[in-house]
């Protein structure tokens, strides 16, 4: 990807509060079934009319109204719920995490994705991130090349970076079960820590067989589109780890439900991203900070991919983690001039 369209949603109240949410998608319609344009038009035409003139303090009742009247549109719902919770938390004078069960940590570990495909370049990039103390875990996107090419690439990087550096792979559904079995055996033997969504989202039985067969952690990503999916995946033992994404889950509260299902089922947690900018990233961090355990850290690096951000004060990434503000709501100071300058017609 060389460009990204951020979808930002603002809700304003009669008494002067302003809340923000984000519904950013990856690659138009390549990754999921909502696009920036669909989010904008569906909010404007179908969803906002259900919220206008309602009492914005009744966040649960409003989201219930949306669930009853609007099918799908998980990203749009997430953005609206985030904005409502931002307002509510500002009203109460607490960080948003306090409305999501309460904060257990003030920072969230963040890994980095190495995606150049060039082994030497990726090793250099990883080493630079370690030296900067920005990231010390890395995720490699694989699945587009032959199995052996990808495995060699990953294992060469692991070997160069050593035992203290966690290397994971995201296959984005690219492998057949047979291919996965061959590849994961080698990745496990080479000390790789996590295999993300090796099989198609629909093939949960296959994921369960892989999770049973291998000791390396198998993570569910694209197969999790809300609590119902999380329940099914847990029931089938089809993952060792959940990638929790607030937009993919249909909002912060439903994403919290994913984490509860995981906890009850003994499944570990990882904080996922849809490559959101600062708003969705901070909303995600506010949720991930409430998880009892965040064993595999997070990938909340979306804002670091952008050449310019939309904040008056940048997010704080240091000591291999994103630091959470303690100010009310999302805790972000948005630069409205920058947003206006980047804005395009909805
Ligand atoms: O995880 C995905 O499948 C999508 C995307 C988000 C972060 C990243 O590295 O890729
Ligand atoms: Mn993924």
From TrEMBL:
It comes from the Bacteria. InterPro entries: Chloromuconate_cycloisomerase (IPR013370), Enolase-like_C_sf (IPR036849), Enolase-like_N (IPR029017), Enolase_C-like (IPR029065), Mandel_Rmase/mucon_lact_enz_CS (IPR018110), Mandelate_racemase_C (IPR013342), Mandelate_racemase_N_dom (IPR013341). Its cofactor is Mn(2+). Pathway: Aromatic compound metabolism. Residues 119-217 form the Mandelate racemase/muconate lactonizing enzyme C-terminal domain. Keywords: Aromatic hydrocarbons catabolism, Isomerase, Manganese, Metal-binding. It holds the Pfam family MR_MLE_N. The keyword rRNA processing does not apply. The keyword Isomerase applies. PANTHER family: O-SUCCINYLBENZOATE SYNTHASE, O-SUCCINYLBENZOATE SYNTHASE-RELATED. NCBIfam families: mucon_cyclo (TIGR02534). Belongs to the mandelate racemase/muconate lactonizing enzyme family. This is Muconate cycloisomerase. The gene is catB.
């Amino acid at each position: 990807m060389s460009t990204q369209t951020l979808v930002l949603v603002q809700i304003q109240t009669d008494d002067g509060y302003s809340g923000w949410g984000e519904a950013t998608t990856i690659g138009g319609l390549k990754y999921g079934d909502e696009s920036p344009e669909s989010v904008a038009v569906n909010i404007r035409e179908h969803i906002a009319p259900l919220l206008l003139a309602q009492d914005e303090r009744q966040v649960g009742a409003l989201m219930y109204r949306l669930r009853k009247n609007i099918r799908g549109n998980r990203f749009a719902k997430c953005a609206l719920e985030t904005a409502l919770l931002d307002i509510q938390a500002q009203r109460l004078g607490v960080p948003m995490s306090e409305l999501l069960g309460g904060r257990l940590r003030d920072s969230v570990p963040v890994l980095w994705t190495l995606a150049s495909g060039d082994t030497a370049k990726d090793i250099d990039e990883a080493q630079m991130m370690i030296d900067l103390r920005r990231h010390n875990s890395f995720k490699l996107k694989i699945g587009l090349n032959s199995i052996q090419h990808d495995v060699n690439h990953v294992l060469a990087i692991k070997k160069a970076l050593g035992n203290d550096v966690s290397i994971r792979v995201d296959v984005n559904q690219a492998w057949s079960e047979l291919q996965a079995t061959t590849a994961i055996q080698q990745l496990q033997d080479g000390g790789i820590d996590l295999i993300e969504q090796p099989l198609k989202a629909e093939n949960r039985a296959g994921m369960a067989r892989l999770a049973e067969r291998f000791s390396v952690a198998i993570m569910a990503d694209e197969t999790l589109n809300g609590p119902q999916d999380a329940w099914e995946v847990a029931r089938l033992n089809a993952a060792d780890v959940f990638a929790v994404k607030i937009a993919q889950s249909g909002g912060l509260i439903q994403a919290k439900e994913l984490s509860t299902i995981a906890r009850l089922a003994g499944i570990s947690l990882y904080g996922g991203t849809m490559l959101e900018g600062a708003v969705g990233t901070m909303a995600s961090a506010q949720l991930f900070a409430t998880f009892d355990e965040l064993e595999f850290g997070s990938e909340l690096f979306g804002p670091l991919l952008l050449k310019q951000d939309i904040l008056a004060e940048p997010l704080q990434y240091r000591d291999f983690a994103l630091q959470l503000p303690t100010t009310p709501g999302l805790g972000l100071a948005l630069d409205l001039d920058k947003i206006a300058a980047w804005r395009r017609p909805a």
